[in-house]
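Exercise 7b. Backbone tokens:
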């Protein structure tokens, strides 16, 4: 805060700006609130309204707007309606009748109150120095801030909506990719190999399995996932018919050690890639038992198949040994592009989850269910083109996301910049004909001195 203040401004203290409204006997805990009711409950949390109640005896009401300060959270809320105060930490402030409450509200929003965690912060407000312009200028500042910050809020709302749009964009790209729409023009300009048939694909997979020493995967005759519309040149097969191997990792949790062989769980696949940053390790003996069963290699697809995150997938993209739990592994043949396989599962994740998972307390995608999933395969050349286009469009989305994050940061700084400018006296013009703030302050002090003294320790009641 600047050490110099404009002409006709004055400095004052908390006690000359505010009176505090008591919440004795009126506070309610969040757990006691309801989803609907006659009166909103306002607490110190970031959510503006925490719930509702119908008990009129708990209501705080005032003819003029009030300000709530969160003692623990530092949240500042503008209240211009009857409400019920939340639990501990809610400080209800009423400004002096001679002051513009909206101006004081914005002043508090600009006040630098350093976080002390969940400790109390109300002392910072009580010890702060308050800047008072003439009353007419307070009104001009408040009106200008209302106008400018409403524009900032509109811009922020539009920016905040973009991530959801990008998520839908990615999903539409994946849907177009695995339905053939993304490469429709490409197919018209490129010939498809004549022998790309179900029988030819099966024969190729059988030969590759035999060369690697893998056993055939049993095909389940139960109903599989619903098919999507796809080009007639593409082939539909069950995963059990085209995968070289489908198996899973540990069922019991190995002993985690400070060092050893890397070990990951379902939560390490939540970002669509493998995440080893938690640094979990297991012994060589336990690792060998698990690794020999799964042997993850670059290009294999890992899929969470039990618990939270079921259906999340990631391609193996590391060349060191690791083990895992609650994750299934699909070893693909050479004729399936690993990125195409992941794109297919990402595009069909919701359908697979709804149609294939089962279980009581937590979802479960068994190896048999995985094998039963039908996958549609374009020829390898088209798979490569699909992956290229998906990666290109996703890179565009990621570029937009970076710009959105940068814009959000600038908007957050813009709000504080506008507030800071207001309280340096630079946001609206000063009028030398305005009654000086010193005169206004003297009148407030005289009125308070003439008012009947409240009993010590008592606060204004609602």
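Sequence design result:
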């Amino acid at each position: 805060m600047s050490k110099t203040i404009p002409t006709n401004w004055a400095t004052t203290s908390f006690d000359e700006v505010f009176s505090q409204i008591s919440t004795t006997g009126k506070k309610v805990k969040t757990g006691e609130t309801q989803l609907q009711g006659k009166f909103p409950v306002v607490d110190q949390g970031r959510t503006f309204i925490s719930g509702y109640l119908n008990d009129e005896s708990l209501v705080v009401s005032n003819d003029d707007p009030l300000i709530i300060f969160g003692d623990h959270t530092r949240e500042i809320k503008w209240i211009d309606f009857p409400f019920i105060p939340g639990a501990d930490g809610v400080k209800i402030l009423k400004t002096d009748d001679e002051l513009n409450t909206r101006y004081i509200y914005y002043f508090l929003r600009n006040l630098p109150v350093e976080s002390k965690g969940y400790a109390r912060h109300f002392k910072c407000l009580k010890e702060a120095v308050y800047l008072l312009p003439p009353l007419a200028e307070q009104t001009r500042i408040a009106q200008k801030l209302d106008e400018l910050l409403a524009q900032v809020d509109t811009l922020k709302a539009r920016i905040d909506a973009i991530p959801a749009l990008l998520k839908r964009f990615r999903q539409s790209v994946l849907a177009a990719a695995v339905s053939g729409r993304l490469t429709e023009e490409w197919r018209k300009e490129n010939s498809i190999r004549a022998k790309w048939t179900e029988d030819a694909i099966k024969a190729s997979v059988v030969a590759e399995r035999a060369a690697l020493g893998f056993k055939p995967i049993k095909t389940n005759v139960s109903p599989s996932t619903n098919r999507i519309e796809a080009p007639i040149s593409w082939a539909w097969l069950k995963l059990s018919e085209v995968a070289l191997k489908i198996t899973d990792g540990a069922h019991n949790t190995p002993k985690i050690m400070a060092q050893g062989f890397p070990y990951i769980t379902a939560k390490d696949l939540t970002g669509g890639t493998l995440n080893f940053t938690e640094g979990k390790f297991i012994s060589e003996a336990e690792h060998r038992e698990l690794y020999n069963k799964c042997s993850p290699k670059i290009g294999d697809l890992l899929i969470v198949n039990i618990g939270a995150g079921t259906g999340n997938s990631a391609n193996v993209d590391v060349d060191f040994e690791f083990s895992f739990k609650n994750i299934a592994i699909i070893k693909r043949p050479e004729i399936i592009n690993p990125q195409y396989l992941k794109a297919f599962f990402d595009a069909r994740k919701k359908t697979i989850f709804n149609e294939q998972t089962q279980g009581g307390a937590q979802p479960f995608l068994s190896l048999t269910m995985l094998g039963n999933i039908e996958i549609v395969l374009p020829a390898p050349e088209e798979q490569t083109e699909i992956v290229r286009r998906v990666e290109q469009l996703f890179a565009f989305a990621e570029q937009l996301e970076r710009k959105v994050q940068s814009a959000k940061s600038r908007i957050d700084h813009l709000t504080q910049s506008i507030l800071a400018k207001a309280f340096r006296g630079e946001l609206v013009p000063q009028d030398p004909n305005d009654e000086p703030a010193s005169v206004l302050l003297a009148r407030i002090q005289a009125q308070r001195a003439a008012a009947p003294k409240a009993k010590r320790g008592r606060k204004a009641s609602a």
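Instructor comment: Residues 135-179 form the longest helix (45 residues). The first strand starts at residue 10 and ends at 12.
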